[in-house]
Write a structure and sequence with these properties.
The protein is 76% helix and 0% strand. It is mostly helical. The longest helix is centred in the middle third of the chain and has 34 residues.
Length: 202
């Protein structure tokens, strides 16, 4: 199958084609136009990330280690803000007279929780769900959900076309990975069966 460098290089090289096709479609369809040019840059990051993301289920893949770090950091921060700080920290403060010690222990608990959750990726089987079109759709939906949640939380504004554009950018990069794997799989099969071509001619 294609390696990390191949997936990322193809992701970088093919994004301008994605821009051309998606912006042309937006112009032709009766939908709102993109208002913020920064979305092109955000879409690029999501597209290139998606171009190697399916390998999150491979134990030796670089993307898996990167995603583990992101998951551990995000879960630790989210848990600390939503649960540990408002509930666990007051309990520790009632037992400990020092605020710095209570905060340090509380966030240490958040870090440990984040690391544990990030290791759940080890349970994934390589070339399983994440190497399917359903995985690409899930990635696109996660992007849209996170964007909508952040907009609602921080009072930002973005039209439906812009939100969908980011989701499709991620899903398209993801599908590019699946396509490259198929192409490399076919090439490898042909190389490993040297008699195939001669059999076909006969």
């Amino acid at each position: 199958m294609a390696d990390f460098k191949t997936h990322i290089c193809w992701g970088i090289a093919s994004y301008p084609i994605f821009i051309l096709l998606s912006l042309s479609a937006i112009e032709l369809l009766p939908v709102q136009q993109l208002q913020d040019s920064r979305l092109i840059g955000s879409g690029y990051l999501l597209y290139v990330l998606g171009s190697d993301l399916p390998d999150i289920d491979s134990k030796s893949a670089l993307i898996k280690r990167i995603i583990e770090i992101l998951i551990a950091s995000y879960v630790a921060s989210a848990l600390y803000i939503s649960i540990i700080s408002p509930r666990v920290q007051p309990f520790l403060l009632s037992r400990l007279p020092s605020l710095p010690v209570a905060v340090t222990l509380s966030f240490s608990l958040a870090i440990i929780s984040g690391l544990v959750v990030s290791k759940l990726t080890n349970l994934l089987s390589h070339r399983g769900f994440f190497h399917t079109v359903w995985g690409s759709l899930l990635y696109g939906l996660v992007i849209e959900s996170v964007v909508i949640f952040k907009l609602e939380s921080f009072g930002g504004s973005m039209n439906h076309t812009e939100t969908i554009f980011l989701g499709i950018a991620g899903s398209s990069g993801y599908c590019l990975h699946l396509l490259l794997d198929k192409i490399h799989g076919v090439k490898r099969t042909r190389r490993s069966d040297p008699g195939q071509e001669s059999n076909t001619i006969l």
